[in-house]
Amino acid sequence: ALVRHPIYVGDIFLQIGVALALMSYLAVTFVVIIYLPMLLHKAQMEEDFISREHPEDYRLYKNKVGMFFPF
């Protein structure tokens, strides 16, 4: 795997792309200030759950694979 949350990465690009295509500062502001932090929080909650269910395996996986970037 390149990233732990590939669907979220794609969704982030989609949301930013739509906001830019609309040429709306309000939409871009919404994505950056509201949507991105909400998505980051959701991803962190999911990772916390997985870490409790599979502590050793997920720790190893997290050390090898980036959350949103492949480094």
Strand content: under 5%
Count of DSSP strands: 0
Q: Mean of residue pLDDT? A: 95
Please tally the helical runs, counting DSSP H or I stretches of 4 or more residues: 3
The amount of helix comes to over 70%
Main beta-sheet annotation: none
Rg, Å, rounded: 14 Å
The helix/strand class is mainly alpha
Write the element-wise H/E pattern from the N-terminal end onward: HHH
Oligomer: single chain
End-to-end distance: 11 Å
What is the molecular shape?
elongated
- In the predicted model, the low-confidence regions spanning at least 5 consecutive residues are none
How is this structure best described in words?
- With 71 residues, the chain is mainly alpha-helical.
- 77% of the residues lie in helices and 0% in strands.
- It is elongated and about 45 Å long.
Write a short abstract of this structure.
The protein is an all-alpha fold.
Spell out the key features of this protein.
71 residues; mainly alpha; 3 helices; 77% helix; elongated
Helices and strands in order, then pairings?
Layout: H1 6-21, H2 25-53, H3 55-64
Helix pairs in contact: 1-2, 2-3
